[in-house]
Amino acid sequence: MDDCRPLGFLIGLPFAVLALALSLVGAVVWILGTILSCLCPCCICFSGLANLAVGLIKAPVNVIRWFVRQIPC
Fold first, then answer.
1. What is the pLDDT, as a whole number, of residue 60?
2. Which residues span the membrane (predicted)?
3. Domain ranges in the chain?
4. What is the DSSP secondary structure assignment for residue 71, as one 8-state letter?
5. Ramachandran area for residue 22 (φ above 0: left; ψ -120 to 50: alpha; else beta)
């Protein structure tokens, strides 16, 4: 993060907390999707579900970066 944009971090913090909750849900979905894809490798939808869950896990970092980029220096 840039040193001249602390306000973007503070404004984005509540949204990052919400995204953190989503990432915890994503972690559970990822674990279940991985287990199911190992049990039945013919079902491609479980691997897609695991990839979606990885996106949810990365959400808090993406939200904070987006808010920081929105604040002009």
1. 77
2. 7-33
3. 18-70
4. S
5. alpha
Cβ–Cβ under 8 Å, residues 27 and 49: no
pLDDT in tens, 36-67: 777 776 767 667 777 777 777 787 788 778 87
Give pLDDT tens digits for 19-40: 778 778 878 887 887 787 777 7
Burial class for 51, CB neighbours closer than 10 Å (0-12, 13-18, 19+): exposed
39 contacts: CB under 8 Å, gap ≥ 6: none
**Residue 67: helix, strand or coil by DSSP?**
helix
Number of Cβ within a 10 Å radius of residue 46: 19
* Cβ contact 5:71 at 8 Å: yes
Element (H, E) at 21: helix 6-39
